[in-house]
Amino acid sequence: SAVISQKPSRDICQRGTSLTIQCQVDSQVTMMFWYRQQPGQSLTLIATANQGSEATYESGFVIDKFPISRPNLTFSTLTVSNMSPEDSSIYLCSVGVSGDYGYTFGSGTRLTVV
Amino acid sequence: AQSVTQLGSHVSVSEGALVLLRCNYSSSVPPYLFWYVQYPNQGLQLLLKYTSAATLVKGINGFEAEFKKSETSFHLTKPSAHMSDAAEYFCAVSFQGAQKLVFGQGTRLTINP
User: Fold this and answer.
1) Taking CB atoms and an 8 Å limit, are A48 and B46 in contact across chains?
2) C-alpha separations of A85 from A32, A80, A107, B81 in Å
């Protein structure tokens, strides 16, 4: 299965600022996803990162708040913009290969907004 | 809409006892089902997956799960719990053509010595 490097592993940020999270995969993958895990909660899909086109966002998530890039089949970034304490969560990158259905997750980015 | 329900947000068992974590799904099409484990301060690790082959699926660390279509269930079991099994467990589902995962609420497993 693919190996994911997600950076940073954690950060403490001031409200009103932005943080960009990187997801690097060691092989080309068909699908890349970004999830949010709020404290003590399950995982919620933010968006599907599409290579060469705009990301597909889930209900309740918008591009202005969570812009996503995916310039190639091995790399994606998620930016959390204009942060507030409510954005304090773990953000996880996930990848999948078409036909395999064994989605792999990165180790996550633990974000605290103060 | 498709969904996943995990019965019991917290399960506590004694070391050596049977582990049973429950997961039920709702779907109008055949699902693909997954169990993931999350250790403290770590990402998610795939335990096992069902993708329409054998209904009894064996995973890592001695875990297994059985897909029961009539009961719309995919419960996770392990015959004998070990202290290292203490973690958060998530059941998830994806559907043909949809690709994305929908997660259950999670079950925190505690192992008592």
Assistant:
1) no
2) 26, 12, 22, 38
